[in-house]
Design a protein that fits this description.
The complex is a heterodimer of chains A (281) and B (443). With 281 residues, chain A is of the alpha+beta class. Chain A has 11 helices and 8 strands. Chain A has a two-stranded antiparallel ribbon. Mean pLDDT of chain A is 87; it is low at 268-281. Chain B is 27% helix and 19% strand. The interface between A and B is small, with 12 and 8 residues.
Chain lengths: 281, 443
């Protein structure tokens, strides 16, 4: 007999609260725009923050309210932009896909260390200690802050303590560039066209030569070799203007340090030691 | 006299002390070098401005840098000669600091301002404070807090006890030990100076009981001083940390975030006491200090009286150089000292030791994940939970770190020392502490 009372009591309480919830759901319902959910569906969902909003949902709300452009999601690229435009019935803005590029090839074989660092494996904290353990003050420390920062798992640490960017996976959000205390990672438009000087050192040539076998010494040879006049020396570092570069490769042949690479060969390719430079030449 | 067993604190560790390398060696005066590099910041607080220019002739003991800030201490020329350069130079703290390089003329002519200040009973409290400030005296145990600041507490915090820290709990170091054996009179005079400046009625000299000879000498020296007592402390690291020292000698507990003066106590190192005595009796500023040059990596370990500004490389050369298997060069002791990347840096006022460790002494094992053994918790002398704070710092959860009292860490390094997973806990906690203090400043 008791079991019936118990079931009836609990069942009655259940029905009562169910009814209350049903009433509350009707009276306190929050108006939501179904388009926000649709836009949210069109995004990659990495919550990387590259759009400047606090996560994908906030960006979706901003797009629906007209506060952000449909191409605001960099990792989503043109796919997202078109899907968002379709949801909102607008014309999709042009979307330029971006990719992270590591501007240092001074690995543990080709660049020297000042001292042995034995502590927290974090570039920012290692940098605080005596300005970093690498002899080069601008070279990659290889402790992997960029690897941990990447929401797309597009960066992994190569065998010689330099990060490798998977260009297919990279969304170009720039979180890796922000995480790097030495500003070695730059975000460039995606593509294989053009050559790059893979060095970030603004030290004088002699200093660079002392600390790294593959750093740019600003010797001017590439500048003279370039028929397109695409290369300039800016603060002791050669910089190639990708808009002018026509991939002739003359600079690569002239570079004594082996610092210049065609973009088609970087990212995913790990052979940046001197041996690789020799094999290429 | 309290029993031996009572003078102990909770937590701490028992590292190998290895003091026998230098404990029996009398202090030797190292000849003045041909060149000294005097950093304009050798203390906690505002850095000094140079008072001389390149090319100026300076005399021994002449003030060459000063600051208007209250928490600051002037710097003095430790040789006579010519100012060769003023610019950034390597510093034991890790980053270059503005420094004055002086080339010695080898004459060591004292500046004419150097003269005895008079007897202690003739001087007023303010005169003592001024003399201590002008002599550039800082905490010589390594913390380098300007000494005159600790002699001038706010009036609402009366001081009744001055403690002289002769614990020297850091392994290897014997500089304070030698001072206590060789200069007991100067230490006690220095303590009297502090007691007079603070109006304190009681003086305690705390010495770890692994230095029985120093205890004997100091006890003999205070026999005729009813106000001063010598306390034998249990040998345990970090016995010389001021909070531990105050707790075991006075049974008073410095509150979280507080200072010793909150419980009516002021702490000074034996080296600071000797420096104050010299400042009063002879008028000499702090231009020389005792440094233990020790460790298995040093060919001839020694206790040296070294001019401030002497390059560490020169000191090591004087001690016969380094052995080939030297792996780590540390300024200070092995627990709290700072590992250096070069020997091209000057000895400063807070340099208590120059320590060279060999491959055998240095453990370069990689860290692994925390196994929640709580050894760090048991070893922490200030009752923190190091592993939680380190995890909070690792995940940038600095509010959580603050709730865990990260700012109370005394950075003694016991947690890192005992961690079986070899996690650099102290490094993480220092990061958390820095962030927490920065956030408090911003509020």
């Amino acid at each position: 007999m008791q079991i019936i009372y118990a079931v009836a009591a609990l069942g009655g309480v259940g029905i009562l609260f169910g009814a209350l919830l049903a009433v509350a759901a009707r009276f306190f319902a929050v108006e939501s725009d179904p388009r926000v959910e649709a836009v949210r569906e069109a995004l990659p969902g990495a919550n990387c923050g590259a759009c400047g909003f606090a996560g994908c949902t906030k960006f979706a709300e901003a797009v629906v309210e007209g506060k952000a452009a449909s191409n605001g999601c960099i990792p989503g690229g043109s796919g997202s932009a078109e899907a968002i435009a379709a949801v909102l019935g607008r014309e999709a803005e042009l979307s330029v896909p971006l990719v992270a590029t590591v501007f240092c090839i001074g690995d543990c074989e080709s660049s020297r260390d000042l001292f042995l660092y034995h502590g927290i494996k974090d570039c920012v904290h290692a940098q605080k200690y005596g300005g970093g353990f690498k002899a080069c003050t601008d070279g990659c420390l290889g402790l992997g802050n960029c690897v941990r920062a990447c929401p797309f798992e597009a960066i992994r640490m190569g065998p010689n303590a330099l990060p490798l960017v998977d260009r297919e996976k990279c969304g170009g959000c720039g979180l890796c560039a922000v995480s790097c205390p030495r500003n070695i990672i730059k975000i460039l438009p995606k593509g294989d066209r053009g050559h790059l000087v893979l060095c970030s050192s603004h030290q004088r040539g002699k200093t660079v030569q002392n600390v790294c076998d593959v750093g740019c010494t600003a010797c001017n040879a590439c500048v003279k070799a370039c028929p397109q006049e695409a290369i300039t020396i800016e603060d002791n570092l050669a910089v190639i203007d990708l808009a002018k570069c026509n991939d002739c490769g003359d600079c690569v042949l002239k570079c004594r340090q082996g610092t210049i690479f065609p973009r088609a060969r970087i990212g995913g390719v790990s052979g940046r030691t001197r041996a690789a430079a020799g094999a290429r030449a | 006299m309290k029993s031996m067993a009572s003078l102990v604190f909770r937590g701490g560790v028992h590292p190998e002390y290895r003091k026998e390398l230098t404990a029996s060696l009398a202090v030797v005066s190292m000849p003045a070098p041909a060149q000294v590099v005097i950093p304009l910041q050798q203390h906690i607080g505002a850095p000094c401005e140079p008072l001389v220019q390149v090319g100026d002739q300076v005399k021994l003991g002449q003030k060459i840098g000063d600051s208007k800030g209250f928490v600051s201490a002037p710097v003095h020329a430790s040789v006579s000669g010519k100012v060769a350069a003023i610019g950034p130079y390597n510093h034991p703290l890790g980053r270059p600091v503005q420094s004055i390089t002086i080339e010695s003329d080898g004459l060591d002519t004292w500046d004419q301002s150097i003269k005895p200040a008079g007897e202690l009973h003739e001087l007023s409290r303010d005169e003592i404070r001024k003399l201590v400030r002008e002599a550039g005296i800082v905490g010589m145990g390594g913390a380098t807090f300007p000494a005159h600041v600790k002699l001038a507490p706010p009036p609402e915090k009366p001081i009744d006890t001055v403690i002289i820290n002769g614990a020297e709990c850091e392994p290897y170091l014997t500089a304070d030990h030698r001072l206590m054996l060789e200069k007991p009179g100067e230490i006690i005079y220095g303590l009297k100076i502090m007691m007079k400046a603070l109006g304190a009625s009681r003086g305690i000299i705390g010495i770890e009981n692994n230095k029985p000879d120093a205890l004997r000498v100091m006890r003999q020296a205070v026999e005729s001083e009813p106000e001063i007592s010598v306390a034998a402390l249990h040998t345990k690291y970090p016995q010389g940390a001021e909070k531990m020292l105050i707790q075991v000698t006075t049974r008073r507990k410095v509150p979280s975030g507080g200072l010793p003066m909150d419980v009516g106590v002021v702490n000074h190192n034996v080296g600071s006491a000797v420096a104050m005595t010299r400042a009063l009796r002879e008028g000499k500023p702090l231009i020389e200090r005792v440094v233990s040059v020790t460790g298995e990596g040093v060919v001839r370990p020694a206790n040296l009286a070294i001019r401030v500004g002497t390059l560490v490389s020169g000191v090591l050369e004087f001690c016969g150089g380094l052995r080939g298997n030297t792996r780590k060069l540390i300024i200070g002791g092995p627990m709290m000292g700072l590992a250096q990347t070069t020997a091209d840096l000057p000895v400063i006022k807070g340099t208590s030791g120059i320590l060279a460790l060999t491959d055998e002494d240095v453990d370069l094992a990689e860290s692994s994940d925390c196994i929640k053994c709580a050894k760090c918790v048991g070893s922490c002398p200030v009752y923190l939970v190091p592993t939680f704070i380190a995890q909070a710092a690792e995940h940038k959860l600095f509010e959580r770190a603050e709730k865990l009292h990260a700012a109370d860490c005394i950075e003694c390094g016991c947690c890192t020392y005992v961690c079986p997973a070899r996690i650099p806990l102290t490094q993480w906690i220092r990061i958390a502490k820095f962030e927490v203090l920065e956030r408090r400043k911003q509020k």
